[in-house]
Specification:
By secondary structure, this protein is α/β, with parallel strands linked by helices. A 6-stranded mixed sheet has the order 7-8-9-4-10-11, sandwiched between helices. It has a 6-stranded mixed sheet with strand order 22-26-27-19-28-29, sandwiched between helices. Strands 1, 3, 5 and 6 form a 4-stranded antiparallel sheet that branches. Helix 11 runs antiparallel to helix 21, helix 26 runs parallel beside helix 31 and helix 49 packs antiparallel against helix 52. It starts with a helix and ends with a helix. Keywords: ATP-binding, Membrane, Nucleotide-binding, Transmembrane, Transmembrane helix, Transport. Pfam families: ABC2_membrane (PF01061), ABC_tran (PF00005), ABC_trans_N (PF14510), PDR_CDR (PF06422). One of its GO terms (molecular function) is ATP binding.
Length: about 1450
């Protein structure tokens, strides 16, 4: 491919003279002339498609660069030249600390770790971490408007290099001798003051999903709009103009009002989202941009458009771009000015892209025919792929250090060094350029912006901009606002109805205190939901902070401000409902004080949870701490545990508990200056007694008074006082300010997310030996880069005879407003011994067709035929085929060998001995070259297998099953470098040559890789067939078909795969299409031949396939159910043991909460309040349920995803086995957790004086509760799509159970329409059983504040006066012989209090059994729900698949 004049002009010449001349010429040019003048070749670069309304005419397209430059780039020539920045790096070295090896932790090793560390310290043995060098002394220079292609195999340091150029080290360290400057400005200064000029864009596209494309780009434009914009346009007009131009430039105008979306929110496509990222980066007006593997997953044309878009941005703005790409076609390669080649962290070439291939050929390496330049350069760094010229075998370098030494001795390196030194001399770090650039930035900054700030906007403008965006996000996601409000309203209605119309007498005083406690607690704890929201926003905010759009704290402040009226509205709505339903004080002033305290409490708790989120690095950590905080808040509010009963070691918690102050204020507001009529007198002789000879049974009563003072009630019952109300309000305001200020400070200054270096993890006892010296010398251990053994181990695969064919396949899915057809009349077959490629543009339906053929589509309507040898598919079809999905899903805790053995054990026939299965697994390991990491733990990226190793494992898992029919592969080369892609395709070809049938979808294949395929099925837009037939030698058959039907001729140097997508698939990329290739195919002789062949294949039907002749061959599963159970349960128990984080978080939660409850209610006395404290200690143990659910549900959903996406479609084992294993694997840990929790609180609260029977039964109830919690979590989430939804539903259902269990409100006091809930609530039986067991026959000795005091009539003793009353009364008189101050206690034993709540000692074993019934119900319910919602629809769809139309 020839280079345009513009492309050649921006190259770096070896001697640097031409470069110097070009710079001099550029300085004399006008702004428009400063950009490369488009040549005819440049005009052929396709402008990304825009909407019809905004598309330019042909004349406008030619002038687009200069026009866009004037609109969005720079206002004048001086600014243009000042903003054009290159980058120079000298001796760039990056280091990091890491262990020589990493061992997989287990529960046992985690428990022993503190002791091992202590032992090592005593022995004087330090940490085994050593300093590792990741990048070794890189040198290079990039001039304004140039693009650099970064090439290297995975693990060579490409990402680290790009991050280092942008000042992002993510826990690594830059060598002290390293120098990076940007045209006279040091890296340190750039990061501090010009951060927005040097930006790094990771592979992931992070955007607010509910914002539209226009809103997303408008924010970027406003954030980086200069004050000295072009002409007299306002800031708003300039930003809007920039957005319109940029969206036209990148073909996004038709998506202006479309949501960006993400994996969970429906929005634009992945390719369009990538364009949004590009446009956002252009609008940032950055001088240098680094792109990390951004072409992954894109088809060839889309990837080329992406790179050309960067080329346009560089030409328009003079910006520089460095792009790392594992696979780059020749057109993509030629778009770049320079290329840098990395080899195990060493720079082995840096120079013009036109020179790179020639350099390595001169070194002695041979470039195979039709190999792309990028593939050749990457292959040179791969010992398994590179080929030396004949006679040069002993002269070429072999190791990375030798390549580096050769490079440093080459003339190209000398020329580069001269250019680097000249650049350094011309742009010294003498602050001159820094001052000039700072002045330019200050001119662009808004008024009141700090000159040294990297941001262009002042704080006021930033806050206003963030407020606008926060409003847009809220408006676009109104459904979540409504959902939260509905939850809050429903909770308010339930609580209000539970305490409906509380009587205005002494009987209702306790109910008022209870309903206020529930109101303030539930209303405030809804703020905990904000933790998940903040963590979802964090990557987006961090990216935009790096882009210097806005301060992180301004985004946080905007969220706080915008949430305030929403919180006020929700609080007011819920408050009105609960306030008037429960019959609280009907006075306007007190109502508004109630609302004021509720709103303040909500805002304060919001600040507390936001602060917690900003302090933690992981959402799981934040939620665990939030669970502990909730318990602290609930206990130390003063309601469940009054202040006078608080022990000194924890009593201080109430002073830092905002809800304590809110609750006291609301209670005081309700009871102050109120007198409640007594409805229960002691003795009940009224009206025959007078003076002080009677008293009310309520707390706070005075002898002889018919009314009870509310102020005395709250003082004697809770030590609350009305005089504290405004003090409390001021303290809450102080808490609000404090928490929000801390949150804003932490948001701004807390360390950002860091990525760990990749390292393999091994099981204990299977760690390969490696010395520290090897690491210090830079040797790359455990890389998994050994060559594949593609020849010697193919023999174990049997030759196949079965033919899979499909005819007239149509597939429709329901969408809003109707149906969408994804496949239309697709025909084809895969025969044994052929390798068939499935290609098409993005969105053509390649993966969809693969899913339909493999019986994996689960929604929509499928019509047509899928046959094997002309027969309908039998139940064993799925397990006899292999399907390698694009997503590499594996069990993280298993090793490579264990994953392969698991697949072989369950998917190969039962007639094959286990020894033979394992022997074949070893063959697969050798075939794929995985010996080096066969004992490595799969883990997750960063701490486990890398992308290449994961892809090999995905293939190996399917090969281990020894498929009898067909191998499906979906994007097997996605994310891999050229050599790995070639190795995998060559391996597939070997399988096909041995008689295996293989069908694979593929993106961006090189010419050599494309030649490996025998046949091609090409899909166009809408899933319509464009071609199905042979590829031919050098793709001649395919090219002849295209060319004879009107397509242009394919150039000799062109890649046939890219040519086909470009010519036939042009309509999918917004290009004019003059030939209807669908119609061409349907009318072609080739299509008629396909139809005839399908008729012949259908005639082969014989009633059975050749692979279904043996016993059990037609069974759905290869192994019997008992064998499935044994294998799966063993694997799951092994997984839990190897995940100490999950297990330890369980035990930390249970033990910490148990100790907290135990020490909070430490050995409560036998007073009435002491008894209630012990009862509430049992009740509060239930509050850890919500946190426990948040631990279990994500685990279950992760396991379910692995099963449903990989193991169920392959028929490895039954869904019944999956559910059974999930129940059983939790069981022993929940039992052990229950024992630990019981031991943590039981003896602290009850002591050791109770009988062994009681101690054992309480233990059984606690264990039963933990088992119930796990089964309930799995029951709720079994059929739901996400853990978040399941958690919300489970917590809501648990809240209902908690409210109606009889503790908060006795069953007799419940409204008639709610009494059934007391019998339905599972916690009724748990609380009743454990309370009766622990508290039966416990004597009650009233304390002085609990006694009812009154005087007997003159001349009578207390005993004589109360003789008639005591006959029927349940209480006891303490001083019958006294003639004054009669001391009456309303209770004798705990059984009297429990009886009011229908709790009886005799029912303890009944309650224990009924609670087990609920556990069984959870298990059965989970099975039923899973079957109805997740098995039955799939089974029905499977029947549709195998049927004939």
């Amino acid at each position: 491919m020839s280079l345009s004049k513009c492309d050649r002009a921006v190259g770096v010449e070896s001697d640097g003279s031409l470069r110097n001349q070009r710079q001099s010429d550029a300085e004399a040019k006008s702004p428009t002339e400063g950009l490369c003048t488009p040549t005819p070749q440049d005009e052929q670069r396709p402008v990304l498609a825009a909407s019809k309304e905004d598309r330019f005419t042909a004349t406008e397209e030619i002038e687009l660069p200069g026009w866009a430059s004037r609109k969005i780039c720079t206002p004048d020539h001086t600014t243009l030249e000042s903003r054009r920045r290159g980058v120079l790096f000298e001796d760039l070295s990056v280091h990091g600390l890491g262990s020589a090896v990493r061992v997989q932790p287990t529960v046992l090793s985690t428990l022993c770790y503190p002791f091992i560390q202590l032992f090592n310290v005593l022995r004087g043995k330090g940490d085994d971490s050593v300093q590792q060098t990741i990048l070794y002394g890189f040198n290079g220079v990039l001039f304004p408007g140039e693009m650099l292609l970064v090439l290297g195999r995975p693990g060579s340091g490409c990402s680290t290099f790009l991050k280092a150029l942008c000042g992002r080290y993510d826990g690594l360290s830059l060598d002290e001798l390293s120098k990076i400057q940007y045209k006279g400005i040091s890296l340190k200064k750039v990061v501090a003051e010009f951060r927005g000029e040097v930006v790094y864009n990771a592979e992931a596209d992070n955007h607010f999903p509910h914002l539209t494309v226009g809103e997303t780009l408008s924010f970027a434009a406003h954030a980086r709009t200069p004050r000295n914009q072009v002409g007299a346009a306002s800031r708003r007009d300039y930003a809007q103009s920039a957005v319109n131009v940029t969206m036209n430039l990148f073909g996004l105008s038709h998506l202006y009002d479309s949501k960006v979306g993400d994996d969970y929110v429906r929005g634009v496509s992945g390719g369009e989202r990538k364009r949004v990222s590009i446009a956002e980066m252009v609008l940032s007006r950055a001088c240098f941009g680094a792109w990390d593997n951004s072409t992954r997953g894109l088809d060839a044309v889309t990837a080329l458009e992406f790179v050309r878009a960067l080329r346009q941005a560089a030409d328009l703005t003079g910006s520089c771009h460095a792009v790392a790409a594992y696979q780059a076609s020749e057109p993509i390669y030629n778009t770049f000015d320079h290329v840098i080649v990395l080899y195990e962290g060493r720079e082995v070439f840096f120079g013009p892209s036109q020179r790179a291939v020639e350099y390595f050929e001169e070194m002695g390496w041979e470039r195979p025919a039709r190999q792309t330049s990028a593939d050749f350069l990457a292959a040179v760094t791969d010992p398994g792929e590179r080929q030396s010229h004949v006679g040069m075998e002993d002269r070429v370098p072999r190791h990375a250090a030798e390549f580096e030494a050769y490079w440093k001795q080459s003339p190209d390196h000398a020329a580069l060094q001269a250019l680097v030194q000249r650049y350094a001399r011309e742009h010294p770090l003498d602050s001159t350029e820094e001052a000039r650039f700072a002045g330019l930035k200050h001119e662009e900054q808004a008024e009141h912006a700090r000159p040294s700030s990297p941001y262009l906007l002042s704080l006021g403008l930033q806050i206003r901009l963030c407020l606008t965006r926060a409003f847009q996000r809220t408006r676009n996601d109104i459904a979540s606002i409504i959902a939260t409000a509905i939850v809050q309203i429903v909770v308010a209605v339930i609580i209000g109805s539970l305490f409906y119309a509380i009587p205005d007498n002494s009987e209702g005083m306790g109910q008022r205190a209870t309903v206020l406690f529930l109101a303030v607690l539930t209303n405030a704890l809804i703020a905990m939901l904000e933790i998940n929201v903040l963590f979802s926003q964090r990557p987006i905010v961090e990216k935009q902070t790096a882009f210097a759009f806005v301060h992180p704290f301004t985004e946080a402040l905007a969220g706080i401000i915008l949430d305030l009226p929403i919180k006020l509205f929700r609080c007011l709505l819920a408050g009105v409902i609960l306030y008037f339903m429960s019959g609280l004080r009907r006075e306007a002033s007190h109502f508004f004080i109630y609302i004021l305290f509720q709103l303040t409490a909500v805002v304060t708790m919001s600040g507390m949870f936001r602060t917690l989120a900003s302090m933690t690095r992981a959402v799981g950590e934040a939620m665990a701490l939030a669970g502990i905080m909730i318990m602290c808040i609930a206990v130390y509010t003063g309601f469940t545990l009054p202040q006078f009963d608080m022990h000194p070691w924890f009593a201080w918690i109430r002073w830092v508990n905002p809800i304590f102050y809110a609750y006291e204020g609301i209670v005081a507001n309700e009871f102050h200056d109120r007198l409640f009529e007594c409805n229960d007198f002691i003795p009940n002789y009224l009206p025959s007694v007078r003076f002080n000879s009677f008293t009310c049974s309520s707390i706070g009563s005075i002898a002889g008074e018919l009314l009870v003072s509310g102020d005395r009630y709250i003082w004697e019952g809770y030590e609350y006082s009305y005089k504290h109300i405004w003090r409390n309000f001021a303290i809450m305001i102080a808490f609000t300010v404090f928490f929000h200020v801390v949150h804003l400070v932490l948001t701004e200054y807390a360390p950002k997310s860091q990525s760990a270096a990749e390292v393999l993890v091994f099981r204990q006892g299977n760690v390969p030996k490696v010395s520290h010296r090897d690491l210090e010398l830079g040797e790359q251990q455990f890389s998994g880069k050994e060559g594949r053994n593609l020849h010697s181990k193919i023999d174990p695969f049997p030759k196949q005879k079965d033919i899979l064919s499909w005819r007239g396949l149509n597939y429709e899915i329901p969408v809003k407003g109707g149906h969408k057809r994804l496949l239309e009349d697709v025909n084809g077959w895969v025969k044994p011994g052929t390798l068939t490629a499935l290609m098409g543009v993005s969105g053509a339906g390649k993966t969809t067709l693969l899913d339909v053929l493999a019986q994996r589509a689960s929604v929509g309507v499928i019509t047509g035929e899928v046959l094997v040898n002309g027969n309908a598919l039998d139940p064993s079809f799925c397990r006899k085929t292999a399907y390698v999905p694009q997503q590499d899903l594996h069990l993280e805790t298993a090793t490579v060998r264990e994953a392969l053995q698991f697949s072989a054990a369950l998917r190969r026939p039962r007639s094959v001995p286990t020894e033979e299965k394992n022997a074949f697994v070893e063959d697969v390991i050798q075939m794929l070259g995985m010996e080096e990491f066969a004992e490595a733990v799969i883990g997750h990226p960063g701490a486990g297998l890398n992308g290449e190793q994961r892809k090999l494992l995905s293939i190996g898992v399917e090969l281990a099953a020894k498929p009898q029919l067909l191998i499906f592969l979906d994007e097997p080369t996605s994310g891999l470098d050229a050599h790995s892609s070639w190795a995998i395709c060559a391996f597939m070809k070997k399988l096909a040559d041995h008689g295996q049938a293989v069908l694979a979808t593929i993106h961006q294949p090189s010419a050599n890789l494309f030649e490996q395929f025998d046949r091609l099925l090409l899909l166009g837009k809408g899933g319509r067939t464009l071609y199905f037939g042979d590829v031919g030698h050098r793709a001649r058959t395919l090219l002849d078909y295209v060319e004879k039907n009107g397509g242009r001729r394919c150039g000799l140097a062109e890649n046939p795969a890219e040519y086909i997508i470009e010519v036939i698939g042009a309509d999918a990329h917004g290009q004019t299409q003059t030939i209807d290739w669908v119609n061409v195919w349907n009318q072609s002789p080739e299509h008629q031949q396909v139809v005839k062949e399908l008729d012949y294949l259908a005639s082969l039907a014989s009633g059975t396939s050749t692979t279904a002749n043996l016993a059990h061959e037609r069974d759905e599963f290869a192994m019997p159910i008992w064998n499935q159970c044994r294998r799966v349960i063993k694997r799951d128990f092994q997984q839990y043991y190897r995940q100490p984080d999950y297990i330890m978080s369980k035990f930390a939660l249970g033990i910490v909460c148990g100790l907290f409850i135990g020490f909070s209610f430490w050995k409560s006395d036998n007073s009435r309040q002491g008894f209630q404290n012990t009862l509430f200690s049992l009740f509060l143990l239930c509050t850890i349920f919500s946190t426990m659910v948040n631990q279990i549900m994500p685990k279950f959903v992760t396991q379910r995803s692995l099963y449903e996406l990989r193991e169920r479609p392959s028929k490895a084992y039954s869904w019944k086995v999956f559910l059974l294993s999930q129940f059983l694997v939790e069981l022993p840990w929940q039992i052990l957790l229950g024992i630990c929790t019981w031991a943590s609180f039981y003896f602290s609260v009850y002591g050791g004086n109770q009988s062994p029977q009681r101690q054992g039964l309480v233990l059984l109830f606690v264990v039963e509760f933990f088992i119930f919690a796990s089964s309930f979590a799995q029951f709720v989430v079994a059929s739901l799509p996400s853990a978040a939804l399941g958690s919300m539903l489970a917590v809501f259902m648990f809240l209902l159970s908690l409210l109606f269990n009889g503790i908060m409100q006795p069953p007799s006091a419940l409204p008639h329409f709610w009494r059934f809930m007391n019998h339905v609530s599972p916690l009724t039986y748990y609380v009743s059983g454990i309370s009766a067991t622990a508290l039966h026959d416990r004597p009650i000795q009233c304390s002085d504040r609990e006694l009812s005091l009154f005087d007997p009539p003159v001349g009578q003793t207390c005993g004589h006066y109360l003789a008639q009353f005591l006959v029927t009364a349940d209480g006891q008189l303490y001083n019958p012989d006294s003639s004054q101050d009669c001391q009456y206690c309303a209770y004798r034993s705990a059984d009297q209090y429990l009886a009011i709540r229908d709790i009886a000692w005799d029912d303890r074993w009944r309650n224990f059994g009924i609670f087990w019934v609920y556990i069984v119900f959870n298990v059965i319910g989970a099975i039923v729900l899973y079957y109805v919602f997740r098995v039955l629809p799939h089974s029905r769809k499977t029947r549709v698949h195998i049927g004939r139309s």
